[in-house]
């Protein structure tokens, strides 16, 4: 269809305006990256750096030479991996059970799930529960409260509701019990949903901050987000990032490098899970 002159002008105006908005949105990320790779001496000389004359890895080398910072990355990785696996196991199994009409007490359990969406106990009851379970200063104090949520269970239940019951009936005829059906039939068909929710869980655990500050009293167990908060707020990192380096880079370049290091690992997860988002869950699974 041929566009009129007014339509072409309107489209070009939209392109220009959206391009300007995109550049304004992208510039803070670009600035963080540039400053983190800028040579410390050049940063101290210039008020604003758009493109550095001399690139340097001094800030990254300084941070990664700090045992405290490296250990925080390990803590975040542990929370993201173990927490995501546990959350997927609990959320998907509960959602699948609630999607099966033959399950006894299904309506009562569904009511409890809905109540958790409408009402939250708050910080103090949660802290008292974690303390009574003797989980203070334990990684499980962060993982257990975030294992699942009513909203995630309902979304996964909607996905499992779309799975045809004929698949389970055919598997049962072949001699599979409920666990075999769950492991061999349901989970392989649920990879797109599990990949999406796994990404949500991983991002949540990787970015955990408040619960870590609340429940982890030992600073050596802090995840990277807590360390990043200390670096960003404190004018001087002090003994937090003690290292063998004799010359310490400027605090601002350390802040920018810490932001990049804390952001890149979770961004690298997206390309590996992207293929599961577009893949159909039931393509070719049922005929007739």
Briefly characterize the structure.
It contains 15 helices and no strands.
Q: What do these coordinates show?
A:
This protein has 2 domains: 5-60, no CATH class; 62-278, Orthogonal Bundle (MetI-like fold). Helix 1 (5-36) crosses helix 14 (251-267), helix 4 (67-99) packs antiparallel against helix 11 and helix 11 runs antiparallel to helix 15. The protein has helices spanning 5-36, 40-45, 58-64, 67-99, 106-118, 123-132, 140-143, 150-161, 165-173, 178-189, 191-206, 210-215, 224-233, 251-267, 269-278. With 288 residues, it is an all-alpha fold. The protein is globular, with a radius of gyration of 25 Å. This is Carbohydrate ABC transporter permease. Residues 73-273 form the ABC transmembrane type-1 domain.
Q: Overall 3D geometry?
A: globular
What is the average of the pLDDT values?
A: 81
Q: Which value, in Å, is the CA radius of gyration? A: 25 Å
What's the number of structural domains? Answer: 2
Point out poorly predicted stretches.
280-288
CATH architecture of the largest domain: Orthogonal Bundle
CATH topology group of the largest domain: MetI-like fold
Total strands = 0
* CATH homologous superfamily grouping of the largest domain: MetI-like
Terminal-residue CA separation? 40 Å
Order of helices and strands: HHHHHHHHHHHHHHH
Q: What structural category characterises the helix and strand content? A: mainly alpha
The helix content is 55-70%
Report on the biggest sheet.
Answer: none
Which strand-content bin applies to the residues?
under 5%
Number of helices: 15
CATH hierarchy class name of the largest domain: Mainly Alpha
Transmembrane segments: 12-33, 77-96, 108-127, 139-160, 181-206, 254-273
Pfam families: BPD_transp_1
GO cellular component, one term: plasma membrane
Membrane topology: Multi-pass membrane protein
